[in-house]
């Protein structure tokens, strides 16, 4: 995320604990940050669009250089994951159809690998999820990988649990 001639513009979709931390770090790096979330609270200096990203996106006030999708499903079932990851991907792709150079960062999960018995897992491991929710994540990853946009998949582990809200 380097831009020298003008202020870098970031759209942060999802401002839960991790998304808010990323947005705050971006603000401290002097990025112009727009945040989209269902809730009404955003970190200081983040321009908020209160919106469900799984629905048709409103017009953005400016073209983002990068978009970070740091999504939180409304539940732990396949339907909630589909809404959060696949439906959001479809809506984002529609909104970004005129901005093919916008880089997309998808926060996914190590769950797409499927290993659960202490095996070594890295970015070269086969993606073969077992859980239905992880299969939905894999579907969303594949949508982005085949979208034509520059995409980076991030698969953090161990970030789930209580106290994850901003």
Number of domains: 1
Strands, count: 6
> Class by helix and strand content?
alpha/beta
Query: Helix-strand pattern, N to C?
Result: EHEEEHEHE
What number is the mean pLDDT?
91
Rounded Rg: 16 Å
Give the name of the CATH architecture: 3-Layer(aba) Sandwich
Strand order of the main beta sheet, please?
3-2-1-4-5-6
What can be said about this structure in brief?
With 166 residues, this protein is an alpha/beta fold. It has helices at residues 17-28, 78-95, 132-145, and strands at 9-13, 32-37, 46-50, 66-69, 103-107, 151-154.
Overall description:
Helix 2 runs parallel beside helix 3. This protein has a single domain, classed as Rossmann fold (3-Layer(aba) Sandwich). It has 3 helices and 6 strands; from the N terminus they run E-H-E-E-E-H-E-H-E. Strands 3-2-1-4-5-6 form a 6-stranded parallel β-sheet, with helices on both faces. Helix content is 27%, strand content 17%. With 166 residues, it is of the alpha/beta class.
